[in-house]
Design brief:
This protein is α/β, with parallel strands linked by helices. It has helices at residues 15-30, 45-56, 62-86, 96-99, 118-125, 152-162, 196-204, 212-221, 273-283, 312-320, 351-362, 386-399, and strands at 2-7, 34-39, 91-94, 101-103, 112-115, 129-133, 136-138, 144-146, 167-172, 193-195, 225-229, 237-240, 252-256, 259-267, 289-295, 301-308, 329-333, 336-342, 369-372, 376-382. It has a domain at 2-173: Acetylglutamate kinase-like (Carbamate kinase, 3-Layer(aba) Sandwich). It is built from 12 helices and 20 strands. Helix 2 (45-56) runs antiparallel to helix 3, helix 7 (196-204) packs antiparallel against helix 8 (212-221) and helix 11 crosses helix 12 (386-399).
Length: 405
């Protein structure tokens, strides 16, 4: 039986934690499993490398940045392999090239195209524990690429799907998936299980436990996921296709402060305006939300939407450089946050968003915009109110018995 384990940066941040991970991996191997381990860069090492690159050359190329960042995971791989070997078990570290992870050529946000598992299977057949560098791949030219922040999860799920692993275990510094971020909402409850669909929404809405693309891939290929802590033996949270818990429950309350609003004014009102904008954003893999438009007295339109702060410059450049879109001005503004509640039963129970709005009203927190779907309700609020808003909304759901016990 093949199992895939992924350990995040905090799990391998120090010498003692690397040794702790080594003991966990060996324990899994001793039960007769073939074990593939995916690791992230240690602690904040990726951020440190990015800061160093900015100091060396603020206008560095994305290719060279990817080549630099790939070294973080390679370091973790080698150190973990050494720690496992010190316990008397064979282990081998593989970077993306050796692991056969082929990607597109979009540096800093590449997509996995294929995985050649020949080397991995060879090492597993030789009874070695295989340690694979997460977050990275290799394009057709042989250049290192990176898959986007948090993408070691994606590497692990992709390997689990390709190897037909029985389970993919995501180890982090928390004991599972909670109904809210415990650092913001101390009363948050750990969930025993959650559906792929719910987890996909929470990941997209700011919950940082699992990367969105990894959840989507797990759902597509039916990869069983378990999220648990590398620092304790507590049971984690199972991410699966369907939940057997009956009733209308909130899966989670999420806060996303990493957003900014883009406003484009004076757009000529003609067919195809939204197609032009969406096609531009799609070319750069930019997701937009909270779309709003106002038709002016002069017949033109003002539109606005939110994007991630990390994609702001690309979003602005995409619009400014497109001569098919006629407009007067383009601007952006921060200081906002997205507060969301996710529930599979929301479409048939208007009481869920109603409780959310009631909680915000009672605390005098103003709502800027509202966006809803069959599974979630989201509002834009002042960024400075975001944490307090999350606490009061979560408390309202607890009192209304909408949070799973």
């Amino acid at each position: 039986m093949i199992i895939v384990q992924k350990y995040g940066g905090t799990s391998v941040a120090t010498e003692e934690r690397i040794k702790n991970v080594a003991r966990r991996v060996v324990a899994a191997h001793k039960t007769g499993n073939k074990v593939v381990v995916v690791v992230s860069a240690r602690g904040n090492y990726t951020d440190e490398l990015i800061e160093l690159a900015e100091r060396i050359n603020p206008n560095h190329s994305k290719r060279e940045l990817d080549a630099l960042l790939a070294t973080g995971e390679q370091q973790s791989c080698a150190l973990l392999a050494m720690a496992i070997q010190a316990l008397g078990h064979p282990a081998v570290s593989l970077d993306a090239w050796l692991a056969g992870i082929g990607t597109t050529s979009v540096h800093s946000n590449a997509r996995i195209k294929s995985i050649d598992t020949e080397r991995i299977k060879l090492e597993l057949d030789n009874n070695s524990i295989v340690i694979v560098a997460g977050f990275q791949g290799v394009n057709r030219r042989g250049d290192f690429t990176t898959l986007g922040r948090g993408a070691s999860d994606l590497t692990a799920v992709a390997l689990a799907a390709t190897l037909n692993a029985s389970i993919c275990e995501i180890y982090t510094d928390v004991e599972g998936i909670f109904s809210a971020d415990p650092r913001i909402v101390p009363e948050a409850k750990k969930l025993k299980e959650i559906t792929y669909f719910e987890m996909l929404e929470l990941s997209a809405l700011g919950a940082n436990v699992l990367a969105k693309r990894s959840v989507g891939l797990a759902k597509k290929y039916g990869v069983p996921l378990v999220v648990r802590s590398s620092l304790s033996d507590a049971d984690g949270t199972i991410v699966k296709e369907e939940s057997r818990v009956e009733g209308i429950f909130i899966s989670g309350v999420a806060v996303d402060k990493d957003i900014v609003r883009v406003s484009v004014t004076g757009i000529t009102d003609e067919p195809g305006v939204w197609f032009k904008i969406f096609s531009l954003m799609n070319q750069y893999n930019i997701s937009i939300d909270f779309i709003n438009q106002v038709k002016r007295d002069d017949g033109k339109k003002d539109i606005s939407f939110t994007v991630a702060k990390s994609q702001l410059e690309e979003a602005l450049a995409a619009i400014k450089n497109n001569h098919r879109l006629a407009y007067d001005t383009i601007s952006h503004a921060g200081g906002i946050a997205k507060l969301s509640a996710v529930s599979t039963g929301m479409a048939t129970n208007p009481g869920v968003p109603s409780l959310m709005f009631e909680a915000l009203f009672e605390m005098g927190i103003n709502i800027d915009s509202i966006s809803t779907s069959e599974i979630r309700a989201s509002v834009l609020i002042d960024e400075q109110e975001a944490d307090r808003a999350a606490r009061v909304v979560h408390e309202k759901f607890v009192h209304g018995k909408y949070i799973r016990d």
